[in-house]
Amino acid sequence: MNWIEPDWPAPASVRALSTTRDEGVSEGVFRGLNLGAHVGDDAVKVEANRTLLQQVAEIPGRLNWLNQVHGTAVHPVSNQYESAPEADAACAHEAGLACIVMTADCLPVLFCDRAGTRVAAAHAGWRGLQAGVLEASLAAMGGDPADILAWLGPAIGPEAFEVGGEVREAFMAEQAEAAAAFKPSPNEGKWLADIYRLARLRLARAGVSAVYGGEYCTHGDGERFYSYRRDGQTGRMASLIWLAE
Prior knowledge:
3-stranded antiparallel β-sheet; 6 helices
C-alpha cells in the first residue's frame, strides 16, 4: 500500500501517514482505497478499505472518524464515543489513539510536539483555514507553539485552486501578507490560491516555525489522488497521526 509518510524530524514515538488511492476494493469513480463513507460508495467496500488500512498500517485501537463540516471544532480522541463527532480536527495526548481527517483537495495538517507526547490532525479547506482550524488545533494540543512540528499533506496545488475575490479578501482582512498567496486567474474576477502558503502564514503567525510538506497537487495527479474539484463525485483519502504504544 503506497501511502505517504511525512518527511519531518518527528520523534520515534510518532506514527503518521497520508493514504493515496492505491490498493483498496472500491470501483468506478471511487476506484482504489476510498475511505469516505459519505460520498456514495458501497458501504461494504468502504468498510473493507478501512479495515485493510488499519491492518496494513498497524493502526492501534479503533479508527476515530470525524463528521467534517469545514469548521474549527477540535475533538479530543478517545475510544468511548459511538458515532463520528462533528469536528474538523482531532487531538490526542495518549498513545494508541489515532487522529484522522479525510480530504480530496482540502489541506490535511498533521501536528506533533518535539517530545512525542501530543499529536493532532486538522482538515483545512479554505473556510476552515480562514476561520482558524489550525490555531484551534494548536490550542487543543496545549504547550508552546514553538515546540510543535507541522506537516502539510496532499492538497490542491496553487495552479489549480481557483477562488472568488471574496476568499482573497477574507484572508487579507485578517493577515495582509496573505495577498502574496493569490495571483490572478485567467478567468476574469477569479484568483488562484496557494493553500499551502496560506497555511504556512497562519502557522507562522501562531508561532509554529517548523513546517514541512506542501509539495503535492491532488488535482493534477488522478492516478494517485482523489480530487473533488477535478472529478466531482469521488473518494476520500485519509491523513492519520498517533503515538506508538
